[in-house]
TrEMBL record:
Keywords: DNA-binding, Transcription, Transcription regulation. The lineage of its organism: Bacteria, Bacillati, Actinomycetota, Actinomycetes, Micromonosporales. Belongs to the LysR transcriptional regulatory family. This is DNA-binding transcriptional LysR family regulator. The keyword Lyase does not apply. Transmembrane segments: none annotated. GO terms for molecular function: DNA-binding transcription factor activity; transcription cis-regulatory region binding. Pfam families: HTH_1, LysR_substrate. The keyword Transport does not apply. Residues 7-64 form the HTH lysR-type domain. Signal peptide: none annotated. InterPro entries: LysR_HTH_N (IPR000847), LysR_subst-bd (IPR005119), WH-like_DNA-bd_sf (IPR036388), WH_DNA-bd_sf (IPR036390).
Length: 301
């Protein structure tokens, strides 16, 4: 669209001020400008549109007939610009006032609460909605624009997402107190762990994906004994005697302290994993999402 002869909005507002006050000097005062500056602005508009806009006289300034017509048209343009500006402001305000977060279960249960408390201290007017799901679902949610920021615990980040490590976690092998592994004097071997039927999360879980990646050198893992969709269900199943499981150290701290579960040492494999924040690739993290990302990253120190 060619708009080579359309004055800028500030100049149009200045023209309307001249029409309303009948004076270049009063128009200048209303805009916080000097009279020579206003005169120069009017002359610049006249050169742009190609015809005189203002008649200057000893008793003041009036618009020419063409200038008056341009001023009438300018009112509609300025009104439309005001509506546009208000709409943009409302969208920015809405974005600043809310934050949608998607997080894997371990992060949602054990890390995000204290991060969100800190965010509430810094941004008391920001409303946060949190959706807890597995890591694959978090990636889909962020990619589809249903959350501004996500947190995942799997070893891979979905294509189309940028990522930043915000924390580290260690997976631990846990069994009920009556399990035979409790009486072993030596750690279990990584190959034995891979060949053992475990109580596991669903295949798209970040915990399961991290364990599978860590044990990939020992061949395909044994078929799960049970597959459960939440960490709480896994902990209860293990405590009830279903079998061993590999869970986040963050998730089983209370169970270990209370003696409901027992940690079994394992050798030959590093079960440390990185927890990441994710957002759409190519997008700039801003507003409350940027602040939450900063708070999460600071927790590593």
């Amino acid at each position: 669209m060619g708009l080579s002869r359309v004055p800028d909005l500030d100049s149009l507002e200045l023209l309307l001020q001249v029409a309303a006050t009948g004076s270049l000097g009063r128009a200048a005062a209303a805009h916080g400008l000097s009279q020579p500056a206003v005169t120069a602005r009017i002359r610049g508009m006249e050169r742009l549109v190609g015809f005189p806009l203002v008649n200057r006289g000893a008793r003041g300034s009036t618009l020419t007939p063409a200038g008056a017509l341009l001023a009438d048209w300018a009112r509609d343009v300025l009104h439309a610009a005001t509506v546009l500006d208000a709409g943009i402001a409302s969208l920015r305000s809405d974005r600043e006032a809310r934050l949608r977060v998607a997080a894997s279960l371990t992060i949602a249960e054990h890390l995000l609460p204290r991060w969100l408390v800190r965010l509430a201290t810094e941004r008391p007017d920001t409303a946060v909605s949190l959706a807890a799901m597995n890591s694959v679902e978090v990636g889909h949610t962020v990619l589809h624009g249903d959350a501004e920021l996500g947190f995942v615990e799997g070893p891979q980040v979905a294509t189309g997402l940028s990522a930043q490590v915000v924390a580290r976690d260690r997976l631990v092998v846990v069994v009920p107190p009556t399990h035979p592994w409790v009486r072993r004097r030596r750690p279990i071997d990584a190959a034995e762990l891979a060949g053992t039927r475990l109580v596991q999360r669903e295949p798209t879980s970040g915990t399961r994906a991290a364990l599978t990646a860590a044990l990939s050198a020992y061949g395909p893992m044994a078929t799960p004994l049970l597959e459960l969709s939440t960490t709480s269900a896994l902990r209860l199943a293990v405590a009830s005697g279903a079998g061993p499981a590999v869970l986040s150290g963050l998730a089983v701290g209370d169970d270990l302290a209370a003696g409901r579960l027992v940690k079994v040492p394992v050798q030959g494999v590093d079960l440390t994993r990185r927890l990441r924040a994710v957002w759409p690739e190519g997008q700039h993290v801003s507003g409350p999402a940027r602040d939450l990302l900063r708070i999460a990253a600071a927790s590593r120190r």
